[in-house]
UniProtKB/TrEMBL annotation:
<keyword id="KW-0511">Multifunctional enzyme</keyword>
<keyword id="KW-0862">Zinc</keyword>
<feature type="domain" description="CMP/dCMP-type deaminase">
    <location>
        <begin position="1"/>
        <end position="109"/>
    </location>
</feature>
<protein>
    <recommendedName>
        <fullName>Riboflavin biosynthesis protein RibD</fullName>
        <ecNumber>3.5.4.26</ecNumber>
        <ecNumber>1.1.1.193</ecNumber>
    </recommendedName>
</protein>
<comment type="pathway">
    <text>Cofactor biosynthesis; riboflavin biosynthesis; 5-amino-6-(D-ribitylamino)uracil from GTP: step 2/4.</text>
</comment>
<dbReference type="InterPro" id="IPR011549">
    <property type="entry name" value="RibD_C"/>
</dbReference>
<dbReference type="InterPro" id="IPR016192">
    <property type="entry name" value="APOBEC/CMP_deaminase_Zn-bd"/>
</dbReference>
<dbReference type="InterPro" id="IPR004794">
    <property type="entry name" value="Eubact_RibD"/>
</dbReference>
<keyword id="KW-0686">Riboflavin biosynthesis</keyword>
<comment type="similarity">
    <text>In the C-terminal section; belongs to the HTP reductase family.</text>
</comment>
<dbReference type="GO" id="GO:0008835">
    <property type="term" value="F:diaminohydroxyphosphoribosylaminopyrimidine deaminase activity"/>
</dbReference>
<comment type="function">
    <text>Converts 2,5-diamino-6-(ribosylamino)-4(3h)-pyrimidinone 5'-phosphate into 5-amino-6-(ribosylamino)-2,4(1h,3h)-pyrimidinedione 5'-phosphate.</text>
</comment>
<keyword id="KW-0479">Metal-binding</keyword>
<comment type="pathway">
    <text>Cofactor biosynthesis; riboflavin biosynthesis; 5-amino-6-(D-ribitylamino)uracil from GTP: step 3/4.</text>
</comment>
<dbReference type="InterPro" id="IPR050765">
    <property type="entry name" value="Riboflavin_Biosynth_HTPR"/>
</dbReference>
<dbReference type="Pfam" id="PF01872">
    <property type="entry name" value="RibD_C"/>
</dbReference>
<keyword id="KW-0378">Hydrolase</keyword>
Amino acid sequence: MAHALALGRRGLGRVWPNPAVGCVIVRDGRIVGRGWTQPGGRPHAETEALRHAGAAARGATAYVSLEPCAHHGATPPCAEALVAAGVARVVAPLQDSDPRVSGQGFAILRKAGVEVTTGVLAEAAARDHAGFFLRITRGRPFLTLKLALSLDGRIATATGESQWITGPEARRAVQGLRACHDAVLVGAGTARADDPALTVRDFGDVGQPVRVVASRLIDLPLMSQMARTAAEIPVWICHGPDAPPEKRAAWSGLGARLLPCALQAGRLDPGAMLHALGQAGLTRVLCEGGGQLAAALLTGDLVDELQVFTAGIALGAEGQPGLGVLGLSRLADAPRLRLVDISAVGGDLRHVWTRHEKA
């Protein structure tokens, strides 16, 4: 099952809105077929593994990192394909939360006489499929917030210089984060100040994430890197209902997709924005700033994972803070997260935090 999960992770960031599933088929103690969900979500992992196994799948055990699908879509159900191939046993960690499947895949298998075992490495599978499950159950993608900070929590000098606070190893780790997310999100201020490309670089031939900008009034430069490449690599803009029509027309003409979002206290409502991204099919979004957007996501309890890269440099009180105004008057109201990992990345530290579940 660990191998099936590892195979499934190859699809993270490339298969949305489908889950990134892995499948390993074993017969007589030997792997006879392997597969994972292919870019765009088709073919499914089971289809790929059965194709590789061929006749050797008969009487074999299939380890699948999520309940096999039970609904007819672009392809027949994977549960029926496993039955037709003569698989004797299916091992899966979790039931699918998609109501079109949700136990029905297991039911098809059991009705056909296939032995079904569940619960194997269920925690690890739940982490891998968190984005897919969140989109199904809450209508929004899994949100990872990334911050690159100085020792004193700054993201730039007082003049706005920020390249580079962290070292090359940390920056490469961020490229890896981009590669395993469906989209990279930044605020309008970051888009204007840094003119980021938000692409995956130095990772070979990999799919590119959707570039998302949160900009209430679409006040973004039309000669930016994203504007120039919008026709080749997707750009989506989350904007308010009061965005000027000429701005909408200009960016639509460049190939950008516009997502209207509700406002909250005069700013884009972060919950509405994530819901719009979920409706558009995204399951995993990486937010790379800026400070005000990061603060809004944290105060809205929308950050599922926080990855902080801290460099051995101090920028002082005049530097720009990593987080915008949180509006706190009591410590009890501050967002609290749970530390799950800390590691050295070159000369920097990476600490990973997840939502602190309230008692």
